[in-house]
Write a structure and sequence with these properties.
The complex is a heterotrimer of chains A (290), B (286) and C (278).
Chain A lengths: L7 E13 L2 E13 L4 E5 L6 H7 L8 E6 L2 E2 L6 H7 E4 L12 H11 L4 H14 L15 H13 L5 E5 L7 H16 L3 E5 L3 H4 L4 E6 L2 E6 L1 H5 L2 H6 L6 H12 L10 H18 L3
Parallel strand pairs in A: 3-8, 3-9, 6-7, 7-8
Antiparallel strand pairs in A: 1-2, 1-4, 4-5, 9-10
Helix pairs in contact in A: 3-4, 3-5, 4-5, 5-6
Chain B lengths: L5 E10 L7 E11 L4 E6 L5 H8 L7 E6 L2 E2 L7 H7 E4 L12 H11 L4 H15 L3 H4 L9 H13 L5 E5 L7 H16 L4 E5 L3 H7 L2 E6 L2 E6 L1 H5 L2 H6 L6 H11 L11 H12 L2
Parallel strand pairs in B: 3-8, 3-9, 6-7, 7-8
Antiparallel strand pairs in B: 1-2, 1-4, 4-5, 9-10
Helix pairs in contact in B: 3-4, 3-6, 4-6, 11-12
Chain C lengths: L21 H4 L2 H17 L3 H17 L4 H8 L3 H18 L5 E5 L2 E4 H27 L2 H12 L9 H31 L12 H32 L18 H19 L3
Antiparallel strand pairs in C: 1-2
Helix pairs in contact in C: 2-6, 2-7, 2-10, 3-6, 3-10, 4-6, 5-6, 7-8, 8-9
The chains are: A alpha/beta (290), B alpha/beta (286), C mainly alpha (278).
Chain lengths: 290, 286, 278
């Protein structure tokens, strides 16, 4: 398979929830999207924009009403091959507590492996490796209810890593954590991405979005904006209309730019703001000939 | 000077005292809150924040030390605990979980009904509380609670506590899990309650942008103790303190720190984007 | 002074006391089997000496597993009123049916015979034995081992289409969520108390009123539990769980000589209990 081949292809997907016999609420309207190997994709939008529903289509938890989703060319409608789909695209959910099934950490990591019929000796190797990858080896024999939210999410990630997926989908996985727990999870994600894992994250936190390769903005079940974080955050007005924030770094850059034309408004990270300041100060010093 | 509306002195609490699992959650904590203030309590998970706020309306009684709220002494076993709980409205994390009536109006009316108020006054209070949180009484009172969005549910829960007409509003992570739109709106509402209705507000938060926007004064908790107290400007201006206690900095402050490290003279206490932009303009326009 | 709300910290279901004794290190399948055999023997044995012997064995078990006896006694304490009520009822009404032995006392329908006295005393002893034995089992075996052991022991039932894996999984999940729900309940009680609710202050005989007072807790707890269950199902499905599909197992137990000896010892004890004639 070449790198141009998407891992996930979403083609003209529409989806609606049934309220009752004759009432349906459309949640996704004709959404198309490709996720490429090694990519870090962020999906943003306010609650009810359809972003969470979209993410649940990526590994066949939901199947489209019309349109198709393919994971490595397997249609997610194909129930016979749903194991393959779900072991290739893993998913971490919002509530740390609601995705742990076992009373001991290592048993929980084993859960998915037991489901796909991995032999016991191989399980041990995989559990070792995935607990190591999320830095939770020391907790392997502990009951999960004594762990912090961030630690529980790391266990959830380990449970998915053990299945050796190509892609991990995080559905607001950091929204219930404190800033410390969030940083913890982000550093795990960053490391996995560096090692080649494809990441799709659904989030409200704009600082997480800034790290992505590509951003999709959703509104009323459609993708209304997409591009690199820099391209997307340049549309500050449009984002405000959609009730979304931009990172403070972007806001500060825009504010400075208003007063001082040459200062670049298209900055998304704190470090970039600092660099831009440096550049201007040096230019000024040169201009004044000192 | 009038006496503070909330006065906590030398409060300590040990969970499971006398067992091998004993855990000191509060260690000689003292805080004073003046009438009409808006106070933030920040700190790492497990630093004792939620144990502290549960003492403020008598859900927990002091093991040692003193808690006096609006003249009511929480450590006095004979204190009118129901009066205390009406005066101090405590809103838990994810309060939308606590809704249980079918209709929005009924749920908000639960507290006032329990107080034994006449129907007309209950109705008046529900209407008042709903308007305060930005829910239209006529439009929303007969809506089923389960059909609301997350942000709306949280407003209903907040209204349910406001309907008690508390003097002090205590909030645990008021915006956790909300999307930016609902978060900003709720913050506006809380700010207005403090500034226009004169409610004393004490809130616990992990979100430093939120603390920066709302709080007049901040208490930093660590290991069951008050590690530091001061204005947001003072707290955020002290990077070693923030790092020591695993407290995230607002992004604007982080940028200013990086600039200061490179030798620029900036005020790192400027935590609002507008202020940070002004600091930067000062540097480059010279 | 503590508070009326501290539920979660007092829950001791599945309280495990790791002293790393021989009993702790036994294969849970064998431990569970031995336990079931002894419980059956206790249920059948109705002699004084047989039960005294069983009682002695149970107390000995605490010593072998290095668990202080007061853990067992604290399990008996809450059962005392129940034992007394049962004993009284048996004493009053059972004599009519079991008219064997000497009759000590008779008045109207009340007959107290040596047989009914024996029944009363033996039942009380059985109670204590069962509590002691269960305490040793749960204190020396983690809940994880217990469910694993049970799943393996019930394994043969799969042949008659009994869903053993699903059953074990349900129990594991139930145990897993006990602390979570205890915390949830504590939080809910505190949240409702904060807006004026009061629980348990009404007279106990006004059951309807008291039940009504609990609704603000029960309804939200149900909602939260349902929401959690829904989340959990999604999370399990996302990790390839299919009800009824065959699964492999991570934990494997290998029985050693110690495990076989333990089983044999428990059978011998049971046989002795049942053969003692007095």
């Amino acid at each position: 398979m070449t790198a141009e081949h998407p891992i996930i292809r979403v083609e003209n997907v529409s989806f609606s929830y049934k309220v009752n016999q004759d009432q349906q609420i459309p949640v996704l309207q004709n959404v198309s999207l490709d996720v490429f190997p090694g990519e870090y994709l962020a999906i943003i939008g306010h609650n009810g924009s359809g972003k969470s529903t979209l993410s649940k289509h990526l590994n066949g938890i939901l199947t489209p009403k019309t349109g198709d989703v393919y994971v490595n060319e397997i249609n997610t409608r194909d129930r016979e091959r749903i194991y393959e789909v779900r072991s290739q695209v893993g998913m971490v959910f919002q509530h740390p507590d609601n995705q742990i099934v076992a009373t001991i950490v290592e048993d929980d990591v084993a859960f998915g492996l037991e489901n796909i019929g991995i032999a016991a000796h191989e399980m041990r190797e995989r559990i070792d490796a995935s607990l190591e990858a999320v830095g939770m080896s020391a907790f392997r024999h502990r009951p999960p209810h004594h762990l912090s939210g961030g630690q529980k999410q790391r266990i959830a990630i380990a449970g998915i890593l053990a299945m050796r997926p190509q892609c991990i989908v995080l559905d607001e996985a950091t929204s219930m954590l404190d800033s410390y727990g969030r940083q913890d999870i982000l550093s795990v994600i960053r490391k996995l991405h560096r090692e080649g894992m494809t990441i799709v994250t659904v989030t409200h936190h704009m600082s997480e979005v800034a790290e992505a390769d590509r951003v999709l903005v959703m509104e009323a079940g459609q993708i209304v904006l997409q591009g690199t974080p820099r391209e997307v955050f340049a549309h500050q007005e449009r984002l405000r209309e959609l009730h979304l924030d931009v990172p403070d770094a972007s806001r500060i850059a825009a504010l400075v730019h208003q007063e001082w034309e040459p200062f670049s408004p298209n900055l998304i990270a704190n470090e970039e703001v600092v660099e831009e300041v440096n550049r201007h100060v040096i230019k000024q010093a040169e201009a004044s000939g000192t | 000077m009038t006496s503070p509306i909330v006065d906590v002195a030398d409060l300590s609490h040990v969970y499971m005292q006398g067992t091998p699992l004993a855990h000191r959650a509060l260690d000689r904590v003292s805080i004073q809150v003046e009438r009409g203030e808006c106070i933030a309590i920040i700190g790492h998970t497990g630093s004792g924040k939620s144990t502290l706020i549960q003492h403020l309306n008598g859900l927990m009684r002091p093991q040692s030390g003193k808690v006096v709220v609006n003249g009511l002494d929480v450590s006095d076993p004979k204190v009118d605990i129901r009066l205390l709980r009406r005066q101090v409205g405590l809103v838990f994390q994810n309060p939308e979980d606590q809704l249980f009536e079918k209709l929005v109006g009924d749920d908000i009316a639960y507290g006032p009904f329990k107080m034994g108020l006449p129907i007309a006054e209950v109705k008046e209070r529900v209407e008042w509380a709903m308007e305060l949180v930005g829910l239209s009484f006529d439009e929303m009172k007969d809506r089923p609670t389960f059909a609301l969005s997350g942000g709306q549910k949280r407003k209903v829960a907040l209204a349910g506590v406001l309907a008690l007409r508390p003097h002090v509003l205590v909030l645990d992570e008021p915006t956790a899990g909300l999307d930016p739109r609902s978060r900003n709106e709720l913050l506006q509402r809380i700010l207005r309650l403090n500034q226009e209705e004169g409610l004393t507000v004490i809130f616990v938060s992990h979100n430093m942008e939120e603390v920066a926007r709302l709080a007049q004064r901040v208490y930093v908790m660590a290991n069951g103790q008050i590690a530091c107290e001061g204005t947001p400007r003072r707290i955020f201006g002290n990077s070693s303190l923030l790092q020591e206690h695993h407290i995230g900095t607002p992004e604007a402050v982080d940028i200013l720190y990086q600039l200061r490290e490179q030798g620029y003279a900036v005020d790192t206490g400027s935590f609002l984007p507008e202020e940070a932009a002004a600091e930067i303009l000062n540097l480059i326009k010279r | 002074m503590s508070t009326e709300f501290e539920l979660s910290r007092n829950i001791t279901i599945g309280q495990y006391l790791p002293t790393n004794s021989v009993v702790h290190r036994l294969d849970p399948r064998f431990k569970l089997a031995a336990f079931v055999i002894m419980i059956l023997a206790i249920a059948i044995c109705s002699t004084y000496v047989g039960n005294l012997f069983a009682l002695a064995v149970c107390i000995g078990m605490f010593w072998v597993s290095k668990i202080p006896l007061h853990y067992g006694l604290s399990g008996v304490k809450p059962a005392i009123p129940f034992i007394i009520i049962l004993a009284t009822l048996q004493l009053l009404f059972y004599g009519e049916i079991a008219r064997g032995g000497t009759i000590y006392f008779q008045y109207g329908f009340i007959t107290i015979s040596s047989e009914s006295v024996r029944l009363v005393l033996v039942s009380a002893m059985r109670f204590v034995e069962v509590i002691f034995l269960s305490s040793v089992l749960t204190l020396s075996t983690s809940t994880t081992e217990l469910t694993h052991g049970m799943e393996r022991l019930l394994g043969p039932l799969q042949k008659v289409k009994f869903p053993v894996h699903a059953f074990a999984l349900i129990i594991t999940i139930a145990i897993r969520f006990v602390p979570t729900f205890a915390m949830e309940m504590e939080k809910m009680m505190k949240a409702q108390a904060s807006r004026g609710a009061d629980f348990g202050t009404g007279e106990w005989w006004r059951i309807i009123r008291r039940t009504k007072d609990m609704l603000p807790i029960i309804i939200p707890l149900f909602n939260v539990a349902l929401a959690r269950a829904e989340d959990l199902i999604l999370a399990m499905e996302a990790r390839c769980y299919m009800p009824g599909a065959s699964r492999t197992q991570y934990t494997h137990y290998k029985a050693t000589g110690k495990d076989y000896s333990a089983l044999i010892i428990s059978i011998m004890i049971s046989v002795i209990m049942l053969y003692i004639p007095w």
